[in-house]
Write a structure and sequence with these properties.
The chain is of the alpha+beta class and 171 residues long. The protein is built from seven helices and seven strands, in the order αβαβααββαααβββ. The N terminus is likely disordered.
Amino acid sequence: MSTVTRPDSAATEGRGARGVPVLGLTVLYDAQCSLCSFLRDWLGKQPQLVPLRFVAAGSDEARGRFPELDHSVTLEEITVVGDGGQVYRGSAAWVVCLWALREHRPLAHRLSTPSGARLARGAMLAAAKWRANQKAGAGSAYYGADGWVYHPRSGWTYNAPGCASGTCSTR
């Protein structure tokens, strides 16, 4: 896995992309995933310091523009390609997307620290779990062991563990 602060070294060294400034980013997203499409729309509406382009992962356009990528992997986790050949995957890809946004660059810098990287990785794992449930046709709620429940139609709710009825004492 790539680090949060650097592009995927195996993918960039062969093209001499290390140290090349990033002037534009292409976000490869799963067009069949509602979460991915929502995030694509959200990213596209934000004021950008670095232009973001969006291409459906695994599409003919993606394969034509980036023939060296494993396109089955791009469908499994977010992949961002810099105009200088940099390749970011997973949480590093999400952080570089935030870095490209005017109002979210400070957050990207915080997420590039060791403790921030753990937070970004946790968010990516939660998103991956949600996507896996959607792909499996579950379409149902996600239940966390900590009491948090996500219902696709109504959002997040909290039921304290051991309090399934939701009427537990608060003492």
